[in-house]
Amino acid sequence: MLNLILTALLTIIVVWLGWTAVMWLWTRHLAKTSATVLDSQDFDEQSRGHQIFDLRDSQAFKSKHVLGARNVPYAMLKENHSAIRKDQPAFLYDTNMQGAARLAHTLKKDGYDNLYILKNGFATYHGRTKSETHA
To answer: Does the CA dihedral 61-98-53-117 come out positive or negative?
Structure first.
């Protein structure tokens, strides 16, 4: 009985690790084929004066975000791209790059060019930021 439980637990762990690895690889593939992936420093320097979209929820955005970014959650932009101008570069970021990669893929299919994604998401960003605090 103990062997059966351990085997089941090991199987669950292996499947979870496999799924995580596949999703990580797929995210990177989508990002690289749909946009230019920039590290923190390049994202900070190149995004100045352009449209920057924070795809995270509003609470995370209010806590801290890239200076000059607009908070438009991934689900909203996925359904309606009208907030993103086609004639200007668009810089996208979220927490871990998954939503940004998926959105860039969708935008690319819809004819958007000049798409940029923050490598590894906001968690690794070290550029200029802003926090919104309410009294």
So the answer is: positive
3-12 per-position pLDDT tens digit: 888 899 999 9
Contacts of 101-105 with CB under 8 Å at 24 or more apart are: 101/27, 101/28, 101/30, 101/31, 101/34, 101/35, 102/30, 102/74, 102/78, 103/55, 103/74, 103/77, 103/78, 104/30, 104/31, 104/34, 104/35, 105/30, 105/33, 105/34
pTM of the complete model: 0.81
Q: For residue 15, give its domain range.
A: 2-130
Query: Does 47 fall in a domain?
Result: yes
Report how far residue 14's alpha carbon sits from residue 76's, in angstroms, rounded to the nearest whole number. Answer: 34
Residue 82 is part of a domain; what is its CATH number? 3.40.250.10
